[in-house]
Please model this.
Amino acid sequence: MPLLRLFIATDISSDQRAACANLIVNLKKGVQFTKAYPKWVEPDNMHLTLKFLGNVDAARVSEIAQVLDPITAKANRFMMGFRGLGTFPSERQPGFCG
Model:
């Protein structure tokens, strides 16, 4: 079976998504003057990663989903905000780390 790069994530609000998209527009203006070569994330793909699972055998996806289903069914909504920027995975390839 192939390996899949998996993570557990939650959506961000449309307001947060729009704010991040606006931030990226502004960052693109300044990054041309640096040595960084970022891979920009499309707003529709933005999310909050709760746990990075890494490379997982595709055969284990349903097993992982079965474990997570009852947990996510009990999860409550929560408020969150973004503050500051960071780089991931490195300064040469920065990403948003809200």
